[in-house]
Amino acid sequence: MSRKTFYIETLGCAMNVRDSEHMVAELTQKAGYEPADRLEEADLILINTCSVREKPVNKLFSEIGSFNKRKKAGAKIGVCGCTASHLGEEIIKRAPFVDFVLGARNVSKITDVIHRPKAVEVDIDHDESQYAFGEFRASPYKAYVNISIGCDKKCTFCIVPHTRGEEISIPAELIVREARKAAESGAKEIFLLGQNVNNYGRRFSGEHPKTTFTDLLKMVSDIEAVERIRFTSPHPLHMDDAFLEEFARNPKICKSMHMPLQSGSSRILKAMKRGYTKEWFLNRAQKLRQMVPGVTISTDIIVAFPGETEEDFEETMAVLEAVRFEQVFSFKYSPRPLTPAQNYPDQVPDEIASARLTRLQSRHNEMLDAMKKEREGQVHTVYFEELRPGNTVAGRSDNNLLITVPGSEELLGTMRQVRITEAGRTSHRGEVIA
Ligand code: 5AD
Ligand code: SF4
């Protein structure tokens, strides 16, 4: 008899991408499944969801409806991830053809729920920090490694603490072991993942020696086979001097920093419970630019948080001017269930929110256009990871610029010197020079 097959669709953040890899590992190694090429052929269809904003949640139900029509007779559908955590059994009530619901903090139970009709596993106290997952990586060149689960912050707009539960750090020795194994099997780049990575080490589930994120960075960089380290997401509040100094000093740490601003107004930051002010953010960004020549900084910004006035928004625009972010992920505030901000007074009308978002994005595009000129002619070390159409290969520079060059498979997994020949807003063309 042929083996059973599965198909996974993954939405949302890098954490979800890694959770999907864990589910693939569990299904293939412990339950005898293999991947299907197409949804229509699969015996098991999984959708790994995101609930950070409202739109993807609404889309979920129309999407699983269409999966249900396209699936072959007898195939099962499972809803996993953050929306699974927050809606739980309501998903099966609204879409009775769904066979099981598996929360973001319960992915290790995948091989169990596939055998339990209408199972709902969404316990946010479940502890997966001991990390007993099988091994699977979508890319041989880059390895995602979780360093913590959950989030202890209580940002008032954010549903994540409710979907991923309280923050528990994974023991450093497990992280180092996993990073070493991945690097020794060819993944030169290790991507450390957590909701709030630089808060690492605050709580473990057992007795473990005190380890900070800065300590962990040193430990991972001591692994000889590791050539590059990236991480996401750090929190601006925890960007202390020791962390910035290690970031600047350690040649294996890639020189791009994600600094989620959310708002440039200290008043709004307070209402968001972000724990820092505009001045602190600017101070950290400036220090980073001074200490790390060539560093790129990316950010997340929410416009039209409840109570945001024109003056508050102008402050966000002022930070945009001051920091010159290379990448801005910007969103209209989206009220989320279970979060305090959904009940705040002065919710901003949608027309105003849209106008602010457009203004922010247009100004940022102008800034990117101005940066293009500086980029052209620059030489970067690029690690090639992906074949692209038209005989091109894409990779990232140390400071996270996406660069494509003419070439084929032999470039994959190599680091080359590349000159940027044509800079764009979000990706650049280049030529390999050595
Ligand atoms: N509305 C809009 N954006 C949000 N984010 C998180 N919660 C919300 C929300 N309720 C954004 C933040 C976060 C990113 C992952 O998603 O900017 O950093
Ligand atoms: Fe959400 Fe704030 Fe935690 Fe990030 S740090 S996951 S925004 S609560």
Bound molecules: 5'-deoxyadenosine, iron/sulfur cluster
CATH topology of the largest domain: Rossmann fold
Overall domain count: 4
CA gyration radius, whole angstroms:
22 Å
The name of the CATH superfamily of the largest domain reads: Methylthiotransferase, N-terminal domain
Mean pLDDT, all residues: 96
Low-confidence stretches are: none
Give a count of the beta strands, DSSP E runs of length 2 or more. Answer: 19
> Span from first to last CA?
51 Å
CATH class of the largest domain: Alpha Beta
Name the overall outline.
globular
Structural class: alpha/beta
CATH architecture of the largest domain: 3-Layer(aba) Sandwich
Give the count of helical stretches.
13
For the largest beta-sheet, the strand count, sense and barrel status come to: 6 strands, parallel
Please estimate the helix content. Answer: 25-40%
Looking across the biggest beta sheet, what order are the strands in?
2-1-3-4-5-6
Share of residues in strands? 15-25%
